[in-house]
């Protein structure tokens, strides 16, 4: 907080009578002597002198204003308040005493009364810095950010080189989610006071949130002994963002004992380990996140993906199932649950997940195809047919859906329709071996073995090692 000096002396008009004027001049000299003690750095002696003057003349404006000021300077704001109130009652427009009284109110946790005094000063002297600054701090504490911004901006116009004002203006902008403007003010504060670690910290974190490479220098300056978790984590991210992954990983690994119970730290470490190809170590770090924060959505998702890629489908299914329950609006979680469950042999769970995806996003043809295929495998021919037709309604040349609808026709013994569907599938995808095989089987049932063998021979040229093509071709040739 900024304190303003009270007046060093005050003109007191003498009244008629020589002896009274002489006493007045003596009192004024004692005021001047007491003020001189303060100016000489003898604050305690100055307080005793003004206390004596106040005891002798309780209504003396000089004694009231000076003693109130000195009490404020020595952190005895409670004693300062009544003295300054009496002084301002005598001279309501004394700007310095008004400011000191506002500061005393602020120090005694009376922000409303403090703000009233600061605003009164600004009506008398709009270009006075301190009332703008102090009003801004009150508005900031009240979370009245628009008013705080206005006051701090006025203060910066009056004192452009005041680092504290720029910093506080940055805090107000940040609270209003005006991150670019906040970062600009924090940078000004840090550049004005390069020795101040707090200003460097604020600038670094603000730039880190904006993913600006300039964050790195400020964060390194703010780091200190490494005990500030926010700075430490942001610095690691800044190293990674700057392409210095090895530095980032080395730095994070060095923080493990300090950040042992910080789930954000372990998550970032897991991401870095994964990016560096250290999959088992990444898995270990993600598991540590979930020990500390069992419902961390990102950790559940990332560990699930890691396990899925490693072929650990059952555990991946468990994680994606939990994630879907915690975050029911996440389509990605349901897509991943369906894939993991299908690979784990939990077809019913996969079908349920895919149905939810399709209800939310009917245009997801790839998911609808997986759903249709799973329904077919489960024996739900009508359900499979419905979804194959839905895919074909959006894309009549989808080879997988044509093959699927061909299988439905084949199942119903609608052989001409099945033949047409399979032929359309191989036209849409000339190397589609499954469709060739299904077409040959259909032709065989239609008593066209020669044509069926030709289809299989064509397929064998495309996929010489396909076991189904080879087996059916041998069977048909031997029976022909």
From TrEMBL:
Pfam families assigned to the protein according to its UniProt record, in alphabetical order: TPR_16 (PF13432), TPR_19 (PF14559), TPR_7 (PF13176), TPR_8 (PF13181)
Keyword tags: Repeat, Signal, TPR repeat
Keyword Repressor attributed: no
Residues spanning the signal sequence: 1-21
PROSITE patterns with a match to the protein in the record: TPR
Domain of life from the UniProt record: Bacteria
SUPFAM superfamilies, alphabetized: TPR-like (SSF48452)
Residue stretches of each TPR repeat: 61-94, 95-128, 129-162, 163-196, 229-262, 263-296, 297-330, 331-364, 399-432, 433-466
Protein name: TPR repeat-containing protein
Coiled coil: none
């Amino acid at each position: 907080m900024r304190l303003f000096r009270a007046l060093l002396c005050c003109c007191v008009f003498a009244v008629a009578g020589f002896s009274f004027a002489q006493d007045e001049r003596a009192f004024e000299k004692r005021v001047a002597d007491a003020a001189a003690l303060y100016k000489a750095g003898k604050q305690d002696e100055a307080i005793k002198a003004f206390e004596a003057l106040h005891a002798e003349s309780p209504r003396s404006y000089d004694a009231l204003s000076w003693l109130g000021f000195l009490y404020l300077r020595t952190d005895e704001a409670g004693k300062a308040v009544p003295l300054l109130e009496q002084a301002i009652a005598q001279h309501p427009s004394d700007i310095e005493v008004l400011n000191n009284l506002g500061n005393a109110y602020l120090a005694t946790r009376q922000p409303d009364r403090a703000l009233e005094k600061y605003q009164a000063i600004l009506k008398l002297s709009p270009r006075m810095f301190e009332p703008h600054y102090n009003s801004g701090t009150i508005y900031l504490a009240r979370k009245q950010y628009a008013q705080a911004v206005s006051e701090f901006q006025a203060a910066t116009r009056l004192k452009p080189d005041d680092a504290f004002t720029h910093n506080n203006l940055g805090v107000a902008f940040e609270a209003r989610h005006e991150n670019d403007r906040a970062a600009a003010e924090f940078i000004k504060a840090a550049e004005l006071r390069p020795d101040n670690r707090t200003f460097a910290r604020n600038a670094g974190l603000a730039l880190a949130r904006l993913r600006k490479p300039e964050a790195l220098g400020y964060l390194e300056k703010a780091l200190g002994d490494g005990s500030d978790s926010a700075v430490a984590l942001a610095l690691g991210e800044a190293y990674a963002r700057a392409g210095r992954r090895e530095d980032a990983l080395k730095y994070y690994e060095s923080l493990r004992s300090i950040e042992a119970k910080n789930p954000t730290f372990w998550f970032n470490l897991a991401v870095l380990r994964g990016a560096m190809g250290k999959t088992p170590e990444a898995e270990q770090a993600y598991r540590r996140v979930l020990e500390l924060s069992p419902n961390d959505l990102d950790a559940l998702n990332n560990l699930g993906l890691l396990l899925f890629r490693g072929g650990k489908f059952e555990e991946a299914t468990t994680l994606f199932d939990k994630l879907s329950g915690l975050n029911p609006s996440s389509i990605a979680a349901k897509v991943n649950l369906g894939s993991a469950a299908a690979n784990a042999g939990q077809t019913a769970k996969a079908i349920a997940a895919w149905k939810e995806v399709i209800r939310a996003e009917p245009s997801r043809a790839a998911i609808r195809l997986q759903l249709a295929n799973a329904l077919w495998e489960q024996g739900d021919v009508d359900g499979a047919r419905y979804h194959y037709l839905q895919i074909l309604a959006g894309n009549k040349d989808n080879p997988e859906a044509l093959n699927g609808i061909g299988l439905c026709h084949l199942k119903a013994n609608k052989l001409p329709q099945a033949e047409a569907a399979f032929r359309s599938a191989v036209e849409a995808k000339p190397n589609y071996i499954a469709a060739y095989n299904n077409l040959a089987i259909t032709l065989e049932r239609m008593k066209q073995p020669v044509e069926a063998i030709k289809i299989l021979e064509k397929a064998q040229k495309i996929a010489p090692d396909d076991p189904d093509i080879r087996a059916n071709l041998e069977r048909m040739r031997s029976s022909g």
